[in-house]
Write a structure and sequence with these properties.
This protein is an alpha/beta fold and 333 residues long. It has 2 domains: 181 residues, Periplasmic binding protein-like II (D-Maltodextrin-Binding Protein, domain 2), CATH 3.40.190.10; 138 residues, D-Maltodextrin-Binding Protein, domain 2 (3-Layer(aba) Sandwich). 33% of the residues lie in helices and 17% in strands. It has 13 helices and 11 strands. The protein has a 6-stranded mixed β-sheet with strand order 8-7-6-9-5-10, with helices on one face. It has a 5-stranded mixed β-sheet with strand order 2-1-3-11-4, sandwiched between helices. 45% of the residues are buried.
């Protein structure tokens, strides 16, 4: 402990919005950070199973699931370091007659982990936008119970959902190439302790995106719903926050400054608005609210939607209230 400062172990994924904190360009007031950069899949597993860090990014779905089951070790800070239209990343075999979302009914679909946030968003959108229920699909999950987020949150398949465990001798990539599954909801090849696929499916001629123009589908969904899906939030140990309540807003403020700094690159600054189709003819005047907004007030609809999707998909026994998972001092920002 440095005089007048608090030493905190912090785990972050390496992206544009976290890089200023990782590099030390943006500091956290009254905190001496000891930062580890970790792939999100591994980071969330380590936090949920071993509580390795004082502060980290966290799967939005796992945080809500844990809270619904009485696990309140972590308090959320409304910082959202990863957002994207996950359903546009669905990959399908080109020889299975899957030309539209409805064609996924009756198919074998893989997913790294059934409860991961990207999968929640994709299944929720498939159901609410295209009428494809999770029970219409036979699922194959790559992560094993001991190396999954669900292994620490008490995951069991929802009733009436057929879920197969992919044997450790193979993986999603190999099964897609061999035709043992027809599609994958998400595909991860990043090196980490949790995921094990390595095949480059972008180079596989038998595999293509479900949505030929994923960017257009993302813009359509945003125009209809106003939702730019949230994937990761930030959490702090509850026991630490109870001793030092000021941590919540100090951490929040630092991440806001880091995001603002990341958007000063003129080329990158407008990319989030392009992704959601919120740019008008005049690029400097044509965009509306910040699609990357932190805090609770602005993204409340997005946060409430992921909570609703979790409940609809049988992964929580109720819609977890946003106020239950985020620090009280951040609810007004």
């Amino acid at each position: 402990m440095t005089a007048g400062r608090l030493d905190l172990s912090i785990a972050l994924s390496d992206n544009a919005r976290t890089r200023p904190i990782i590099d030390g360009d943006i500091g956290i007031e009254s905190v001496t950070p000891f930062i580890t950069t970790v792939h999100p899949s591994e980071m969330f597993w380590r936090q949920l199973k071993y509580a390795d860090f004082d502060v980290s990014e966290m799967s939005m779905s796992s945080l809500l699931i844990a809270a619904s089951r009485g696990d309140h070790r972590w308090v959320g800070i409304p910082v959202f370091t990863s957002r994207m239209f996950f359903h546009t990343r669905i990959l399908v075999r080109s020889d299975r007659g899957i030309n539209a979302p409805a064609d996924l009914r009756g198919k074998r679909v893989a997913v790294p982990e059934y409860q991961q946030t990207s999968a929640i968003w994709s299944r929720g959108i498939l159901q609410n936008e295209f009428g494809v229920d999770q029970r219409d699909i036979e699922w194959f999950m790559e992560r094993t119970p001991d190396m999954s987020h669900g292994g620490s949150t008490g995951f069991t398949p929802p009733p009436s959902v057929k879920l197969n465990r992919i044997p450790p001798t193979t993986n999603i990539g190999e099964m897609m190439v061999k035709g043992e599954v027809d599609a994958t909801l998400l595909y991860l090849t990043n090196t980490n302790l949790v995921d094990r696929s390595v095949v480059d499916l972008e180079r596989e001629p038998s595999v293509r995106p479900l949505f030929a123009d994923g960017a257009a589908e993302g813009r359509r969904y945003y125009a209809k719903t106003g939702i730019y899906p949230i994937n990761h939030t930030v959490v702090v140990r509850r026991e630490l926050l109870e001793k030092h309540p000021w941590i919540a807003l100090n951490v929040y403020s630092a991440f806001v400054r880091a995001k603002d700094k990341s958007l000063k690159d003129a080329r990158k600054a407008l990319q989030p608005w392009r992704e959601v189709g919120a740019l008008g003819p005049d690029a400097e005047k044509g965009f509306s609210a910040d699609p990357l907004a932190y805090g609770v007030k602005g993204p409340r609809k997005v946060l409430e939607t992921i909570s609703q999707f979790l409940h609809e998909q049988g992964l929580t026994d109720r819609r977890v209230a946003i106020e239950e998972v985020f620090a009280k001092s951040t609810l007004d920002v």
